[in-house]
Design goal:
Blueprint: E1 4-12, E2 16-21, E3 24-29, H1 32-37, E4 44-54, E5 57-63, H2 66-76, H3 83-103, H4 107-111, H5 118-128, H6 132-145, H7 153-156, H8 169-190, H9 195-208, H10 214-225
Parallel strand pairs: 3-5
Antiparallel strand pairs: 1-2, 1-4, 2-3, 4-5
GO biological process, one term: DNA recombination
GO molecular function: ATP binding; four-way junction DNA binding; four-way junction helicase activity
Keywords: ATP-binding, Cytoplasm, DNA damage, DNA recombination, DNA repair, DNA-binding, Helicase, Hydrolase, Nucleotide-binding
Length: about 230
Amino acid sequence: MIGKISGRIEYRSIDHVLIDVRGVGYIVYCSDRTMATLPSNGEVVALYTDLVVREDLLQLFGFTTLLEKEWHRLLMSVQGIGAKASLAILGTLGAEGVGRAITLGDVTAIKAAKGVGPKTAQRVVIELKDKAPGVMALGGTLAAAGGAAPASEDALLEPFDPPAKPTVAPVASGAAAASAQAEALSALSNLGYGPGDAAAAVAQAASDAPGAETPDLIRAALKLLAPKG
């Protein structure tokens, strides 16, 4: 299994890039959102990858964060969702957006992805809703474990060493958001709230205030969880 690739971008197409790793070129397919964050041709990039094996085809799919890769894996487990549909959903909503949509049962947001019909979108929500809290809780851990592209040719000789800085700003901000949501979810769970209710409240709070830090998310979620009346 090829789990991560670090190398130089040789060329890019609409939905994939060719990454040169020590003279070997790997074609890696990415979502629109991921493609937009990648550096220019000739620059170094690091992507987490998922290898899809079929009888007549081997395809690599690339992700800027482990959280995005985890959602791709779960989306692919839903009947009717292949790699193309999964990338369309992730490209439309982003990893955090997918978590919020599934947790809140927002079928409309899921079906906004190209090629995803209402029945398939509903199936995604139904089959993954119970798994969403766990993935959200993993968000902070996955963000902390995530690496970034090496900064020089010398770094390519040691691809498994932790890099010193993130490749692009959008990845860092996405990791920070995932970490804040995960910490808020953990705090609510420690207060005794059920995982489903806690995840829905955190998702709603994050949707209402993108970029909010952990304390603000907790306060907003607690207000949403407070008894009405």
